[in-house]
Request: fold
Amino acid sequence: MENKKLLLGLLILYYILSLVWNPIFFQYQQILAGLFLIIGLAVVVGFIMFYYWTNVKLKSLLVVPYFLWLIFATSLNAYILIKN
Reply:
């Protein structure tokens, strides 16, 4: 697989974003910061899914439900920000 360092960096970024989003959004109730974090999370997952499509082909489809959930969760986060 090409760009192993890029993939490792993206996976570390994904891990950090997914760890940080929950306490920022739920515990500290920082809705705007949570929105930026979950947008970043969706972008990272989408990028990994599409950029590495040539290497993993149909296995990328296993990530699609999670990616769609991230899009839905992002819209919920934005709705909460707008309505409050």
Q: What stands out?
A: The first helix runs from residue 4 to 27. The CA atoms of residues 30 and 48 lie 27 Å apart. The chain has a mean pLDDT of 94.
